[in-house]
């Protein structure tokens, strides 16, 4: 996932969903300093620091998250595994309150990283993550989030529970031509893709990692692409295998992805106002959680 330009121009689905999740949950976030019914006696003179895990190109961080936060937030840190994403985000979004850093949220030594140093003496007051956690070892990521958050700090997480593109990855991993580039395909398929009850499974994990669950739900969603080209760009921009494929073969890889999408009937075509729309169905897991104060 190192294609910031392509991702920035084809991430309408991710932006739409992050905006909806923020709209729904922002009123429930608690802040100190008297805003939003905060916790008396927990004021921090320097203001609050907030973390966005898997910030990618930073559009969601800068254009959706930052404006949704109260003025007392002095710093929003966007963290991402991809150096290309972090570089792009830093160059595109220049606000003194924003900082983009490289970090692996599932790294065993994250507590010693430059990201941890940004948390302030008590930790991040809020943590957000949109469209990232289906890509990581969730137990390790939650453990690290627990370390990074201040006691009583809240986290709002949204990630893919199920998505047809994961079936495409599994099919392509069986093609003789692509097999060798996709031996670790399971790593890039959501852990809940074949799960009967993603909410229950994720809630169990949250509970085991010591979080208080304020809400956890799965949203069944649709997204309409205006053309197959738009869908192609969107799926290419988040494809984790493409960089491993020799440049001369990448176009064929993308053709095969699109063929699988069509033959597996993973999208439906709708004629509407003389326009052909392509509908894509998936489910998003949303969790609103709190770190215990003890
Ligand atoms: C689909 S993008 C989402 C970007 C942004 N949050 C948004 O909603 O537009 C997923 C991002 O997660 C990042 N990512 C994947 N694994 C990660 C990890 N272990 N730690 C931090 N970021 C990670 C990827 O590099 C990628 O930029």
From TrEMBL:
Domain of life: Eukaryota
CDD domains: AdoMet_MTases
Pfam families linked to this entry: Methyltransf_25
Residues annotated as domain Methyltransferase: 50-153
GO molecular function: polyprenyldihydroxybenzoate methyltransferase activity
Entry coiled-coil feature ranges: none
UniProt protein name: Methyltransferase domain-containing protein
Organism: Gryllus longicercus
């Amino acid at each position: 996932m190192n294609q910031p330009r392509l991702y920035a121009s084809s991430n309408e689905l991710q932006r739409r969903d992050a905006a909806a999740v923020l709209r729904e949950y922002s009123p429930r976030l608690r802040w100190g300093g008297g805003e939003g019914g905060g916790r008396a006696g927990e004021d921090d003179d320097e203001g609050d620091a907030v973390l966005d895990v898997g910030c990618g190109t930073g559009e969601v961080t800068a254009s959706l998250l930052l404006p949704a936060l109260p003025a007392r937030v002095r710093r929003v840190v966007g963290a991402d595994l991809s150096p290309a994403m972090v570089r792009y985000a830093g160059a595109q979004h220049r606000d003194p309150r924003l900082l983009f850093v490289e970090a692996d949220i599932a790294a065993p030594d994250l507590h010693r990283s430059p990201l941890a140093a940004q948390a302030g003496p008590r930790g991040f007051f809020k943590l957000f993550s949109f469209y990232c956690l289906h890509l990581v070892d969730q137990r390790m990521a939650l453990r690290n989030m627990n370390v990074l958050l201040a006691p009583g700090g809240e986290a709002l997480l949204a990630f893919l529970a199920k998505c047809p593109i994961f079936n495409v990855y599994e099919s392509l991993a069986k093609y003789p031509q692509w097999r060798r580039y996709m031996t670790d395909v399971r790593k890039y398929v959501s852990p809940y893709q074949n799960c009967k009850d993603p909410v229950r499974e994720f809630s169990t994990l949250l509970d085991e990692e010591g979080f208080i669950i304020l809400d956890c739900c799965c949203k069944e969603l649709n997204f309409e692409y205006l053309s197959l080209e738009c869908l192609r760009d969107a799926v290419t921009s988040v494809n984790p295998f493409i960089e491993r494929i020799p440049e001369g073969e990448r176009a064929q890889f993308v053709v095969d992805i699109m063929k699988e999408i069509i033959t597996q009937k993973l999208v439906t075509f709708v004629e509407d106002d003389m326009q052909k729309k392509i509908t894509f169905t998936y489910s998003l897991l949303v969790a609103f959680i709190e770190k215990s104060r003890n």
